[in-house]
Amino acid sequence: MTIKLYANLISQPSRAAEWVMWLKHLEHELVLTDFGSPTFTSPEFLALNPNGLIPVLQDGDFSLYGNAIMPYLAEKFNWSDLYPADVQAHAKVNQYLHWHHTNARLITPKVLVPLMHTKQNIATPEEAVFIKDTPALLTKLVELMEKFLVKDFVAESDHPTLADFAAYWSSCRSSSWASTTFPSTLSSLLGCSV
């Protein structure tokens, strides 16, 4: 059975998973899913991910979602270049992936969505505060990225790992803002661009 990736390439985790699958020439079906689509609330989709969110990977009768997709594929297909066998490098990748989802991903609900709602004239008072706090949030996140990037890549390896694909997050949208203040982050983002 063909591996399926349900995704919307506006979604950073969707892009990261698709990018890794593309880079590794993994034959799969990309099921593009529009935000707001009834797909997200269908019983079939909710059986794959009860959260009703993307990305979702379906591999036969097995499914999983979010940043768990990339490690699963790396382990299944032995992509040790992206998910190192070395225990410490492996731990660095896992550490970043766990940090990423509750930190770097804040850019979506606290920056991108409020900006989009502002342009649509539907921003809430809370979103106005998020927009006001955007420079501080971006500074905090990119300062932390500078600390993760002791070497050129997150796992302190000589090549990109799954952590770097996840790290090529929404900050690429703010790379011009970060260019002089955060050179390691910018260098990593540019170095990872395929």
Automatic annotation (TrEMBL):
Signal peptide: none annotated. InterPro entries: Glutathione-S-Trfase_C_sf, Glutathione_S-Trfase, Glutathione_S-Trfase_N, GST_Theta, Thioredoxin-like_sf. Residues 1-81 form the GST N-terminal domain. PROSITE patterns: GST_NTER (PS50404). GO terms for cellular component: cytoplasm. GO terms for biological process: glutathione metabolic process. GO terms for molecular function: glutathione transferase activity. Transmembrane segments: none annotated. Coiled coil: none annotated. Pfam families: GST_N_3. PANTHER family: GH16740P-RELATED, PTHR43917. This is Unnamed protein product.
